[in-house]
Amino acid sequence: MKKFSICFILFWGVVQVSAQKDSIYIAAKLSPNRKILEVKEEIIYHNHSGKALDSIKLLNWIAAYNKRGTSLVYRKLEDRDNSLHFANPGLLGKTLDLKINSDQYQLIGKNDLSEENLFFVLNKPLQVGESIRLELQYQLQLPDKKFTGYGTSESDIALKYFFIVPDHFDPDNNSARSYNDIEEAVNFNTHWKFKFDLPPNLFVDGNLQQNEINSFNGYSDTDPEFVISKSQFQTIKINSDDIATEVKLGYPINPQEVQNLEFFLPLQLKFIKEKTGYIPERLFISDKFRKKEDFFGNNDISFWKFRFKLFTDAEKVDMDYFGIITKKILDESIITSKEDHHWFKNGLKSYLEIQYLKKFYRDAKLLGNLPETSVLGIKPLKWFHASDVKLLDRYGLAYQYIMSQNLDQKIDEPFSALSNFNDMAISSFETGSLFSFSADKMGEEKFNDLLKNYIAENRDQEINPEEFLKKLSEKDASTDYLAAFLKQKNRVNFKLKKFKTKEDSLEIRIAKNTHEAIPVKLETQTREGERKSYWVETAENERLKTVSLPAENIYKITLNDDYIFPEANYRDNFLYTKGLFSNSKKIKFKLIKDIPNPEFNEIYLNPRIRFTNTYDKFLIGMNFKNQSLFDQKFLYSITPSFSTGTGKLTGSGAVAYSFLPAESIIQSLTFGISGSYFHYDFDLAYQKASLYSNISFRKDPRSTVSRGASFSYNYFQRDLNEKMIAERDYDRYNLWTLGYGYADNQMIHEKSFSISTQGMKDFNKITAEAFYRWEFAPRQKLSLRLFGGYFARNETRNNTFNFGIARVSDYSFSYNLLGQSATGGILSQQFVLADGGFKSFIPGTVNQWITSLNVDTSVWKIFHIYADAGVYKNKNNPTQFIWDSGVKVRVIPDFLEIYFPVQSSLGFEPGFKDYGKRIRYTLILNLSTIINAARRGWY
Hints:
This protein is of the alpha+beta class. The chain is about 20% helix and about 40% strand. The strands form 9 sheets. The chain has an 18-stranded mixed sheet that branches. The two termini are about 50 Å apart.
């Protein structure tokens, strides 16, 4: 304690010189098992608010790791990561035995150390500008590093956000703030001093200046972070072109990477300084920061024993570390609230990346060198438009991809509400594209000078980036729209309407769908490839602009080429002035789905061979559609095919149009028509024609909740055999269905509910279904399903439309059964979880009402046990109770599962001679279902 006091007295001398800067001294001793940190801490905190403070708030963010239900645990579950939720207590983090006092003030109140915010009431107000000295003593149980990248592991210990500190972004000390693992800043403009006491053979380094072994101090506008490791850290020093700095790496790298960095870092730092005017004296890069900020999409592609390189190792190092170094410098030089102004630094990072790529990788392709890969002397990727897409186009394409699904968010959305994909596509890429577009319009030198001055004028203080936009607007009025642009989801679209030849000039009509005064870049091109660019100013409320240009053998006209502006639709940005497609778009036929080329109307021709059912067997056909890798509002798909099982022509077709309002409670409203012709029994065909509408309601992009309503009207015509005709079976019927569904696919507590009503001239029925699945241990789940069905009116001639008990009657041809009409054999044993949901072959159907409960729970690995129970009633018959139970084997969970019945209302089923015929299975061959399951947590 004496040593600690002497250090504090020396530290206090520094504090006296630092005016209103807060100061924190921490002495931390690491236990031999590297799990516990003993901490002694001194805080000099000034009242930075505009009023007297009655209480002080300290952040105890290690408590986020301490229990279930914290914001951190919930966010991890949103990202499909349940490791922290199910972690053993010994792997969690928490604060132990906190003691706190002040020699000037009395701290009143007892805090729960499991809380992330500790509030201490003062016995007297802390006046504006006055300071309080706090002495703290506590222990930290460090969490496992696997949860967030911070904590302890076998190889090293990463320390950040663990120590108890004030919150400089809450000067009033009254707002609770939780840790969400989003790399948000807590402290700035603070003088720090750290002294570590480590077990032998451990080294420590961090983002503060090291003044002696295991000791660090200095002023910082970012939060301190340290890495404790068994090996020393790589440091690369740069002294060139008036740049003197050192880059410390908190992770091991190979000699080749060091050599590449020694070559690229001076070039990168020089480039960044030219744009921002500032390079810190030291930069510390942690392993977590590297993984978060590296260049997305340049990694090698590994498949089985093959490895395909998109870029050389040197190019990858250059791209990765330019983004990493850029973001680190921006973090060191700009103080903003990440929650409210994340877009500013993220957008500047993307802007600088765009400028860097323009200078050094202008002609590089999105797929790098991959299209040059030869297979049997053929370069198959050359057939794709993706092979021609430039690396620079990635910024606009990412926005297009997410916007086409109406899953984008406004740029200034609070960061904690952004989906993982929108963190990149919107906060970074869209904002960076806007900055680049503005710089291109006003002149990059003017934009960079403005940026350099703004950073220099606001050093060491929190900024509001909207002030930067105001300065930008004052410099160039064509950027006035930006302030409003950031605050809403945008669907700005420029359209080349028509052109007219008038003497020696072209009169080009440009339409826009917004009242904002947004400039547009027009480019002309001759057949020889000569290009000329023009900036076209549009006035506020000017929806149609006519531009006159010298004809000069112009062949093609383009607006905002190369995705330079985040438009809603690039497909109407191209016109040809000569040839068959003058004043229109060209048509292109393609074989496989691709990144869309907006210059063409693309039609995809896909040969298809697929097994559909035992009657049609393999279908051989050709699919014609316009759906690319990106969603479109208008879609069509036509698939004529030959049925190998019947020797006849079959097929299907559909046309749909979706409305995607940017700001509405509705996410999508789709209207469509479809038709199909296939077989449902040997030599028996059916025709189905549908008119439908689906509504998906707006959802929080980070949420797992989805809601929707649907309506459909279906006409069916079936061939009947002699027996069916004799029994007056239905050969033609119409069905209408109205339904509503709710689903919450969160990891631990998955639930859904649906209700629908269906009818035709002979019946009306109502069905409701509720589902709940609880993951009570890693990969161990309990599922509950409750089904209810009721006929409000039933005047049908047979049991075709009845509720099923163990089998479903697929009269709407929507379940993709392998044996639609099978009554025996392996095809009849296919199970679909619908209606009663019983796995045992309990005979009969239900024509009045049924209620059933289906239970399924994990036992060991892929083995589950299930049980079903239900009550049903048929007309003129008493109510019946039925049940069954058995074992389920999940070969491929949710896609291929096998049911072995054991005990049921029928008896002990393994004792039956035909037990093999009683085994059931589910088989789902729906690729979109697999894709949707895989993409959860990304957006």
